[in-house]
Amino acid sequence: MKTYLLKLAFWILTKYKVNYMLLPQADQQFIIAGLIDQVNSRYTSQSGEFKRSHTLRAVMNTFPSLSKRDASFAIELEIQKRNNNV
Fold it and tell me: What single-letter DSSP state applies at residue 63?
């Protein structure tokens, strides 16, 4: 029943052209956090956009089925989480 309701909900969202985004899974977010750490430690003197593009490339290589939009969103979530904890 739950599966049917989820399919129905996504069908309705698609039919009415509502933009939605799924949150990344916990294991994906953990791996992305590690990739961000690796890029930050490797390229300390580079700009933030340079680090972001390298992190995005690493995420896309690690999770080929993940869309670029979802990968960028997961990276931004992790960066926002780190900035709020500082």
Answer: -
Q: Let me know the angle formed at the C-alpha of 46 by 59 and 63, rounded to the nearest 5 degrees.
A: 0
List phi, psi (to 5°) of 9. Answer: -65, -45
pTM of the full structure: 0.67
Q: At what angle do helices 26-42 and 68-85 cross, to 10 degrees?
A: 70
User: What are the pLDDT tens digits along the chain (86 aa)?
Assistant: 878 887 888 888 888 887 766 666 778 888 889 999 999 999 989 988 999 999 999 999 998 988 898 889 889 988 888 888 75
- Give the dihedral of Cα atoms 26, 27, 31, 32; nearest 10 deg: -30
- The angle at the Cα of 59, spanning 58 to 63, to the nearest 5 degrees, equals 120
**Sign of the torsion formed by the C-alpha atoms of 32, 56, 58 and 47:** negative
